[in-house]
What does this fold into?
Amino acid sequence: MNRFGLLLCLLFYRSMAVAQQAPVAPPETQSPIGYETVQDAFDALTVDPAVTMSEYEGWT
It folds into this structure.
């Protein structure tokens, strides 16, 4: 095998090793909606008298 073929093989296997690494998890951040879960936000909105709820094609 010539040097060029060897170089291509090494680059291929290196790229495969990099592709298999686990993704880095982002640091824990506070929710941008101000509630821990979507259900918590929905529950807060249902008891707020200033909020008008409606449903459109299955979405609230």
Notes: The two ends are 64 Å apart (CA to CA). DSSP finds two helices and no strands in the chain. The longest helix spans residues 3-19. Helices lie at 3-19, 38-47.
